Amino acid sequence: MSRSRVLVGALLVVLLIAPYYLDGFWLQLGALAMAAGVAAIGLTLLVGVAGQISLAHAVFVGIGAYGYIVLASDSSDLAWGLGWPPALAALGGIGLAALGGLVLSPLSGRVNGLYLAVVTIGLVFIWQHVLQEVGGISGGYVGRSVPELDVLGVNLGDTEPWVVAQVPFGAAEKLWWLGLLVLVVAYVTARNVVRGRPGIALAMVKESEIGASALGIDVRRGRAAAFFLAALYAGAAGVLVALTTQFVTPQGFGFQLSTDYLVMIIIGGLGSVRGAVAGAVFVTALPRVLGQYADRLPFLSQVGEGGIDANVMSVFIYCALLIVVIMFARGGLDRALGLLAGPRRRPAPDRAPEPVLAEVA
Amino acid sequence: MKSFVKAVAPALALGLAVSACSSKADDSSGGGVGADGVKTGAGVTKDSITLAALVPLSGPIGGLGQDGVAGVKLYFDKVNADGGVCDRTIAIEARDNKYNSQETMTQYTGLSGDVAAVANLSPGTDAITLESRLKKDGLAVMAGSYDPLLLAVHQAFMPGTPYDVEAVNGISHLVDEGTLAKGDTIGVIAYPNGIGEAVTKGVDGAAEHFGLKVEHTKIDSTATDATAQVNTLKRAGAKVIVMGTAGGPTVSAASVAAASGYDVTILATNLLSQGDVQGAAKEAIVDHVLLTSNSAPFSSDAPAVQELLAAWEKQADGRPITAPVAAGYLMAGVLHKALQQACDDGDLTPQSITDSMAKVGKIETDGLGVDLDYSTPGAAPSLASFILKPDPAAEGGAVIVTGPEESDAAAAYAESQGYVK
Amino acid sequence: MDSLLNALASGLSLGALYAVMALGFVVIYRATGVLNFAHGAFLLVGVYVASVVSESHGYLVGVVAGLLTGALVAVVAETVFLRNSRTHDHVTLTILTLGLNLLVVTEVSRRIGTETLPLRDPIGNDVVEIGAITMPTVRLIALVVAVLAITVFLLLFRFTSWGLAMRVSNQDGEVAALMGVRLSVVSWTSWAIGGALAVLSGLFLASFPTPGVTPALADTAFRAFPAAVIGGLGSVGGALVGGVMLGMVEAFAATYEGSLGGWAHNLSGISAWVLLLVVLLLRPQGLFSAKQVQRV
Amino acid sequence: MVEPILQAEGLTVRFGGVVALDDVSFAVAPGSIHAVIGPNGAGKSTCFNAMTGLYPLAAGTVRMSGERLDRVPRHRIVRRGVARTFQNLVLPDALTVADVLRLGRHHRTRAGLLATALALPAARRERRTDDDVVRSVAEILGLEGHLDDPVGVLPYGLRKKTEIARALCAEPEVLLLDEPVAGMNDAESRALGERIRECREQFGLTVLLVEHDMELVMSLSDHVTVLQSGRVIADDRPERIQQDPVVIAAYLGADPAEVRDGREEVVSRG
């Protein structure tokens, strides 16, 4: 049995029993990190594997979240809803995000590189505009509360707490397990895709469009498919985010969230599924943990004194780490994890890209 | 795969065995009675009471939260110096919500077990986001927004008059002084968010009351150039423009009006900074702008204002005082009253502090802001507003014209909206 | 009719400022292949310094100090951070500029706090009236300065060895090296110019009829992204046309959205993005960039 | 002559004002090894790229077993039985050699996102078939020891072989090799030449190659087409090409028009 398998097994066990010990802050942090992990896995398939940079990931996470709410909520005088069984609505939310990805996927099929980056920024602003305008569905600027999840009569919220080995299990504990389950499924399926036929085809598309098409790979279709797949994972993450925060607002799915996801996969090591998860945990936890232990940090001023307090410092640390990882740490957290798991294979050398683009009249 | 299962299974069994002795098994956290006979709950120990501040602390509007928390601390420093509440000192735990309600929720979850009440100096609808959690935890939130939607959250307390009622007061003042007469047109420039929608609603209400016509325009909440909107309203012949925005568009609208020789009064809630009033647009602002406000300008000679200025001067190393400092100071004063009441009742649990807000009755702010009354849940704590005039020479950039006063129109409007119960 | 003319004038001057900003994106992109997300940071820090310096040394000194600061910060970004990175992947380096942006904007915002800082320009809120058009004097000057800056840039681009190097370096690093052009010089000078152009547009965007220097100014750089991309990221001419198009669309949307009603009533905020979406779906490489052919 | 398997007729390619290929025609006999040679800039690679749909044709047709190939979208060409390699290696460095070879099987497999993500039986069956082909091709080219290495870390010669192996995994009828031995030493190129010949025998391949190494071309190929400045100046068996004064002059830098008169003399005398 390899060292990495033992490590992964041990990690899973720790994660399974963690809700018995952790309090609300850590449970919520974990659930958010796991949701972010699912989203980051999707994004790394698009950006890291297929080489298409997207800043619209928050849009699809948002569609998943709002989709679940609209499908699962009953109509009220404040906002419209369909009142589906929540489990069905959760699948519906994921489906809507995937559908959104499918509708917008020709964009990824046609537009490349940094052009796609900018046009997807546009999608974020357009999405937020739409959320404001369809107040009867989205709750407008106020947002909407999230109905509890219920799977085949098993309540995953606070209304029917479980007692597991004498420990009361509320929504936070249950969602930790749900998040873990979704994350594991996302992880395994993404690994299969990356190592399987579509994944290596996308790696080839990223290397060279022409080379890929000479091998019979339909470049546009491949890129569009990657966009769709990223949206699907984002939708699942969106449902988890909604369940965890119990209330969603338009600002929650804006440009900042999209950049956070990008930062996660870069810190994690582009194209690496486990790196994406590690990056997600890191980016989700860093500012919140720093805020939580702010008063124990020396040399910082207190909030309101006009100096640099822990909250501002956490932004600085976040930026500094991002910059340093990009500058020096080739392979990101994925490489660090690789070292931890024992030597497996040498990393690919980091070549300077050849100037392959030429403007031909 | 099989070897993997072999590795995991025993570890899992071991884990479950260990988990049986989780510390969470006997849930006895929070609650109890101190040696002094005071019942305590989350955030209260035998010598301290911890309050949360969930505010933006970094990024473009991070300054607002930083100054707001400075105001809250300034007030409680004074309280602590006088012996605190119930022989306990007041401590503030501030967290950055990045001006994002969902982030407020996350931060709240991290803190809710360790604080006795929450101050939220964020110009959004965070309290609505938190509503179900607040109810469960019994915590009170002092809200940093005057969005009337917050009135529906019984655990939330706004420290003044809702935006829409304030707009009605402003229009009523303009009618009283003869600027507006029946049949005139009022223009609105509004953000597509809380303040914008509330002001729009207030203007519509006032227009109905006074027989005015209304012309609506919108402005993007990231935009600061109101040229197109002002030109539209000029063509519509608006005699007054009411701003449902932050300070930036107000300054822009005044400048545009001045530049194009448009004789219009611009009515805005006081979100102008000293820099706005003393900057390039100062003449335009003085000529065109009239402000409504929930709090007194720093030029006021009310004792509470002077006290605040003196306290700030002593502590701030020459940093200028700003409106958020005063807002934080005022909120802290309200929270202090509730804490004192809860202490007198011998119960410092969160729910008791929340209930105390209603018990303390009318809260006099000694001229710092409008007087507040939380005794009826769901009702607006005040219907009065200050009317201010910008004045570059005055401290804080404005002087009081009248107020705080509650107009008849505001009373009627509030009645129609169910703000009076 | 009046409103049409006014929308045209306002769109033109706004468009000129967007063009200046877009030109900054294009210069940096051509030289280093990076889409500079830190443009807003350069703009904000430059305008902030201009405001602080102008308090003691007057407006013009402030402007010069601001432009130099913008250029300097941009050069530091290129020489310290980008050049020393071990990765050369343009997408990854683009993300690095996102980190730089957040870092600088957070610090400058902290310093500005809740205040609105004045720029103390001597023109203030004068307006000029030409026929039915009423236009802020500052915006008219902005138009003139933008046209001048763009002209100077185009002259440099066409007729100097630096410009020649700019034109070839993006296409073929080897050819440029053979021509004796030092790529490192081309890239840092390009960043300097990009930084200064950002501040130049910022100086006008913070003047009348907007209230002054606030942290939110950094976001205006985002509004110029579509301008740079609509024209084609590598195209200087495209940046100019894209900028003007964008200014026009925003001005017209702001003027007429009231009469559109429904979903369109607040369209001006996103009109640029909708335009971009449509343009790129039709021409994925922008209006003026030639089709990119990959060599094998 | 037997019916050609691959036939170029009147190929013309323009870049802006430059004519890169001018009315190029030649035919490749099935089962043959056919070389396209010419001095630098003669248009050899352009010819390859035009035939595989990478460059738009200004005029001319390409036929594969009589059917038009030039109207087929470029990602469908491999399905018609034409696989190719590139002059500059086009290999994603992070993939293992085995993955790169599997890429060659892309057009012969079906497993989509869902089947792969869930590791459905159909996807796993396909994978097993692929792996059999991958292993046998790797053995032929001597790559079997490197299947799990990332291509990026391999020496140049092995990467070159990986690229050829990938094209072979496509099980093509016609294999287009763009400078297969460029950058190799004599012994290596001779060995690779042997491998190419073996592959032809074993899989019944037709090989069309562009190559600079004259010795290899002459020893390996059955037929040679010579290009200069985008035109065909000679098209014959290798031993005749070797003696063709036009070709010799072209390689020495003379104007083909001048030499042509001389050749006609030679031909008429012969």
Total count of domains of chain D = 2
The number of helical segments of chain D is 10
Radius of gyration of chain D: 20 Å
Q: How many extended strands of chain A?
A: 7
Could you estimate the helical fraction of the residues of chain D in percent? Answer: 40-55%
The SS-based structural class of chain A is mainly alpha
**CATH superfamily placement of the largest domain in chain D:** P-loop containing nucleotide triphosphate hydrolases
- Which regions of chain A contain 5 or more consecutive residues with pLDDT less than 50? 345-361
Task: Explain the overall architecture.
- The complex is a heterotetramer of chains A (361), B (421), C (296) and D (270).
- Chain A is mostly helical and 361 residues long.
- Chain A has helices spanning 3-17, 24-49, 57-72, 86-110, 113-133, 135-138, 171-195, 197-207, 209-214, 219-245, 255-268, 273-292, 310-328, 332-340; strands spanning 144-145, 150-151, 154-155, 162-164, 167-169, 247-248, 357-359.
- Chain A is globular, with a radius of gyration of 21 Å.
- The model of chain A is unreliable at 345-361 (pLDDT under 50).
- By secondary structure, chain B is α/β, with parallel strands linked by helices.
- In chain B, α2 (62-81) crosses α12 (323-344) and α5 runs parallel beside α6 (194-210).
- Chain B is globular and about 70 Å long.
- Chain D is built from 10 helices and 10 strands.
- By secondary structure, chain D is of the alpha/beta class.
- Residues 262-270 of chain D have low confidence and may be disordered.
- Chains A and B meet through α1, α2, β6, α12 and α13 of A and α1, α2, β4, α3 and α4 of B.
- β7 of chain A pairs antiparallel with β3 of chain C.
Give the tags.
A: 361 residues, mainly alpha, 5% strand, globular, C: mainly alpha, 3 strands, disordered C terminus
Can I get a quick summary?
The complex is a heterotetramer of chains A (361), B (421), C (296) and D (270). Chain B is an alpha/beta fold. Chain B folds into two domains: 39-160 and 301-373, Rossmann fold (3-Layer(aba) Sandwich), CATH 3.40.50; 163-293 and 384-417, Response regulator (Rossmann fold), CATH 3.40.50.
Strand and helix layout:
The complex is a heterotetramer of chains A (361), B (421), C (296) and D (270).
Chain A: H1 3-17, H2 24-49, H3 57-72, H4 86-110, H5 113-133, H6 135-138, E1 144-145, E2 150-151, E3 154-155, E4 162-164, E5 167-169, H7 171-195, H8 197-207, H9 209-214, H10 219-245, E6 247-248, H11 255-268, H12 273-292, H13 310-328, H14 332-340, E7 357-359
Antiparallel strand pairs in A: 1-6, 2-3, 4-5
Helix pairs in contact in A: 2-7, 2-10, 2-11, 2-12, 3-4, 3-10, 4-10, 7-8, 7-10, 8-10, 11-12, 12-13, 12-14
Chain C: H1 2-32, H2 39-57, H3 59-82, H4 90-112, E1 127-130, E2 133-136, H5 137-159, H6 161-169, H7 173-178, H8 183-205, H9 220-231, H10 236-260, H11 268-282, E3 292-294
Antiparallel strand pairs in C: 1-2
Helix pairs in contact in C: 1-5, 1-8, 1-9, 1-10, 2-3, 2-4, 2-8, 3-8, 5-6, 5-8, 6-8, 9-10, 9-11, 10-11
Chain D: E1 6-15, E2 18-28, E3 33-37, H1 44-51, E4 59-64, E5 67-68, E6 82-84, H2 97-103, H3 113-117, H4 121-141, H5 156-169, E7 174-178, H6 186-203, E8 206-210, H7 214-220, E9 223-228, E10 231-236, H8 238-243, H9 245-252, H10 256-269
Parallel strand pairs in D: 3-8, 3-9, 6-7, 7-8
Antiparallel strand pairs in D: 1-2, 1-4, 4-5, 9-10
Helix pairs in contact in D: 2-5, 4-5, 9-10
